[in-house]
């Protein structure tokens, strides 16, 4: 697979303690905006997260997207605006969305670790972690944080420890609207410890760790402090102490920047939508970064504009406005 990408020298700052930088400069500071923070010129490309942004957390398992949102994506494409989905979901959670997403081109998934053609069921690009890095991170966290369990999202399937499986089942019973749904997927394997499966599943695109009875943002800061710049750490499940770990040169912004560059689209021409901390780098990098009103407070603070809540078709409403702007 692709070698680790060199990190550009310019760096964006973050208000989140312990957060790694994107390796990319923020854009859009010079763009003319309305009082609400919208651009006054139509973007060339819309990049949007899925869960919590256009898919309600009530519908994570079904992947239901409202008709209004589907129509907004269609209208954007008809207006000449490219639409790119950028999600933390793994490939195995995308095949069922192919029909719903319509003319979906390549999807950036696993927080930027994979570019996936959902129609052809083909990996276009992948950035897996080195097995030794996974082992080191596992050791660092296991030695310092009690009651943790781990999972490996790989190009060949999902592997999790028994405790992660059981805690996921408990989460589903206690919080039926929770996005933590790996136990519902048919393609998973149990392994204790999970790193024993590295030989059979070497291409790890996302390393998962869950803790018990820990506040998610506090857990995130703790793990970032432990692993330093060895890996990139984020989380996307509201209310759950479940972290997602990738290579240090992988996040949504870096992969999206590479992809839009291949299309000849500049960052200033991109409007990006998100709701959780794994979207922070993306909305900071884009010319216009939107947080939905139901987003994590730190994402709202970082955004150029705030769209309506996910359950209120906030992204669809914003797209309907963007389409009306002059080119």
State the secondary-structure class: alpha/beta
Give the helix tally.
9
Helix-strand topology string: EHEHEEEHEEHEEHEEHEHEHEH
Helix percentage: 25-40%
Which features would summarize this protein structure in a list?
327 residues, alpha/beta, Hypothetical Protein, Haloacid Dehalogenase-like Hydrolase, Chain: A, domain 2, 2 domains, disordered N terminus
Structure commentary:
By secondary structure, this protein is α/β, with parallel strands linked by helices. It folds into two domains: 45-127 and 251-323, HAD superfamily/HAD-like (Rossmann fold); 131-246, 2-Layer Sandwich (Hypothetical Protein, Haloacid Dehalogenase-like Hydrolase, Chain: A, domain 2). The chain is 27% helix and 19% strand. The protein is built from nine helices and 14 strands. It has helices at 67-78, 98-101, 131-144, 162-174, 216-227, 252-263, 280-285, 297-302, 314-323, and strands at 45-48, 82-85, 107-109, 114-117, 122-126, 148-154, 157-160, 188-190, 204-211, 232-234, 242-246, 270-274, 288-292, 305-307. β4 (114-117) and β5 (122-126) form a beta hairpin. The longest helix has 14 residues, at 131-144. Mean pLDDT is 88; it is low at 1-21.
